[in-house]
Amino acid sequence: MNDTDTSSSTGPATALVLLHGFPLDHRMWDDLTGSLATDLQVLAPDLPGLGGAAVPDGEPSVDRSADEVAALVEAAGHERVVVAGLSMGGYVALALAERHPGLVAGLALVDTKSTADEEAARANRERVADEVESSGSVEAVLGMVGSLLSDESVRERPDLPSIVTGWIREQQPAGIAWSQRAMATRPDRSDVLADVDGPVVVVVGEDDTITPLAVAQHMASTAPDAELVTVPGAGHLSALEAPGPVAAALDRLLRRAAEATPQSPETPTS
What we know:
The protein is of the alpha/beta class. Helices cover 44% and strands 12% of the residues. It has 13 helices and six strands. Helix 2 packs across helix 3. The longest helix is centred in the last third of the chain and has 18 residues, at 243-260. The radius of gyration is 18 Å and the shape is globular. The chain starts with 14 loop residues before the first strand and ends in a 10-residue tail after the last helix. The model is unreliable at 263-270 (pLDDT under 50).
């Protein structure tokens, strides 16, 4: 496979791809998939270094993650998919749209952003990556749990913090470090969002303090065909905290993607 695929396609989407956030894995989508109305195949892979996925060799890069997702999708026999990414998964989704535009029939950006990290954020990612590697432990990222979930979500589901903490504890320290460095080096992809050839939905938890409403509004105003959805009471993990409303937003996106697919002209009869 070439590093960058600039081919285009007009076929209908045959799968929905769900890309998880950091420092989690595909399990964060489990509740949501049960709420989807789609008949399409749902693919929820573990991104490189997380869950059951191996830590790649070479320089950490969100582009590498996008290429691995593209290879997985193509190996599953799909030429067009709707892609949804939460947080880090959104960064990978945008890289996928840039590097493999013909593969993406629709795009959902959930509690994420299209801009690059500022210098302080990049430095913090590198610091955490170094700490995780040197300690051989994920303790350095366990403190994230408090900022990932809203107070309302925790009140309604007191088990959520322990569930998320358990998932983080099961990650490979090397994979955590790789992911942090990959995110630190990603570019601003707002221009990619502006050129997406297909419908977009931008979803944000009402109480997301990591990528708040203003960030979501920036993305929704940048994409040419975007719906903005605010999820009441949810934080940064809206797809886990409020799977029903996020699933409904994805179902609408899938319908829009199907309606936007050009139909082949009928063959004239003699």
